[in-house]
Each structure stands twice: as C-alpha cells, then as structure tokens.
Amino acid sequence: MDANLVSHLINTYRTPAIRHLAWLCQTPQLMSSPITFAPAQYLPSDYTDTLKAWDQETETAPPMLLEPPQRRLGFYFERLYQVLLEDLLGWPVLLKNQQIQSRGRTIGELDFVVRNHADDRIEHHEIAIKFYLGVSELTGSKLWYGPNAHDRLDIKTTSLLEQQSRRTQLPETLALLTESHITGPLTPRIFMPGYLFYPDDQPVVTPGYVPADHLRGRWMYAHDARALNTSHWVVLNKPHWIGNWCQSEQPDIEHVLEALERVESKVVPQLFAIMRPDHQTGNWLEADRVFVVPETWP
Known about the structure:
Helix 2 (16-26) packs across helix 5 (73-89). The protein has 9 helices and 12 strands. With 298 residues, it is an alpha/beta fold. Strands 4, 5, 7, 8, 9, 10, 11 and 12 form an 8-stranded mixed beta sheet that branches. Strands 1-2-3-6 form a 4-stranded mixed beta sheet, with helices on both faces. It has one domain.
C-alpha cells in the first residue's frame, strides 16, 4: 500500500489505539532478513473495514484495544501485536512472554508462539519497536543509539538474529514446548518497526540491513532547537511515538518551550512532531518528527 495512502487511512481513525494498530499493519521495518515478518502479506483484503467498524463502534473492538495503555511502550506494543495476530489475522497465540527456565534460573523468554493458519505451521515471533539516532563517533564509526544511549541498533539486530530467534533450539525450550503440547519445528520470525533519526549537521551511513523505505526523522541538540521556529511543533509522549500524530487544535508553542527546558534541566531526550495544517479537514497532521537531546548526549 502506498505510504501516503497509509498515512491518510491512519489519520481517519479517531481512536488512538486503532490508529496505532493500523500503523503497525503497514509500517516498514528496521531490519530486512529471511525471517522478517511482514503482516501486510497476510492481512485480509478487508482488514481496513474491520478497523473502521471498531473505530465507529468501539464496543465491538477487542477489549484489549480499549484498555489504558501501559507506561512502558514495549508492553503496549505487545498488546497491539497480539490483537493483530488474533483478531485481524485469526492466528491463535499459543504462548506469550513465556519464560525459559534452567535449574531455577530464567535464561530467556519467548515473545509469541503462534499458529500461522495461512502457511499451516507454528511460528516463534520475536518483536521490538525501536527508535535510533545516528551518531558519527570520533573514531570514525557510525553508530545508532536509542534515546537513552544504552541501546544500539547493531547490538539489538545481532541479538534478534543470533540469540532471541534461536531460543526454540535450546533443550530447555524444547522441553517447555513439549509440556505445552507444541510440536516442532517452529519457524522463527522477527518483527521490528520503528524510526531512524538522522542528524542535520553530520553524515551518517544507514546499515545495509535496514530497508530503504524505513521511516525517518531528524535529531538535534537543544540549543539548536531553540534557534528554530518551533511554532508548529508538538510534544509526542508515549504511546504516541507509535503511528502518525494528528490533532484538531493548533500547536501550542508554550508547551514546546517547556519541553525544551526539561530536555536541558533533566537531561532527558524528547520526541516532537512537526505539524502541518490540513485545509481539507481543518486538522493538524504530522509532517516530520524530531528528537531533541541534551548537550551531553550520548
């Protein structure tokens, strides 16, 4: 589906969780591999009608969609993904967040074990939603850090491919699956949507495993942001890092200035959406997004 059409469809939904779910269904990912899972390849042709019906009559939507979002974005993302699997694809979830034990110690976890009815097989899905900022190191290397600078794209990708997706091969996991009456082999799948944020003032190289159509934003330091016209900016708080932001009211620059002050005083990065007016609907729609970071970052 064309990216502009996807954005238009997402902006038509009034319910935030349904907007987020619609984004999840079609969004590009941050890693291309033989085991990357693309939901759009399996979604029924009328899934947007289902989303529209849920949006118009929320009492018909899966109850999980209507629960207040958890504070941690990862937990909320998992909830959306479960609705995608069970209620849009019709695939039963056999296990979720199943811990793997060895001699009384947790050695890992399976995000999802699902029955793929389309391909008639059982799959093990490892999922993550990520936001990385590109940095040119003094050593000349180009690294992609999460906002807290503890997480890195290269490390997460290696972990997904070489560790997390292979956990069903562990003897302890095989025993667990047998106890749950799940017979193998299980097909590993990885789902990792998100954004890469590029700096304005330095060139960074996108890793070769990142698809060309990945979602992009910008990042800058707080002192650079203060020098810009931020009258069309809005603060993006979780869970609204997911999906396109839209609002009916005009952006409030005072909220933006307060957020920029917090970036500097609390030394915490902040995500903003840069909005544009949509004269057809009268709403304000996200045109770009930017992370603002403190001077000491990363």
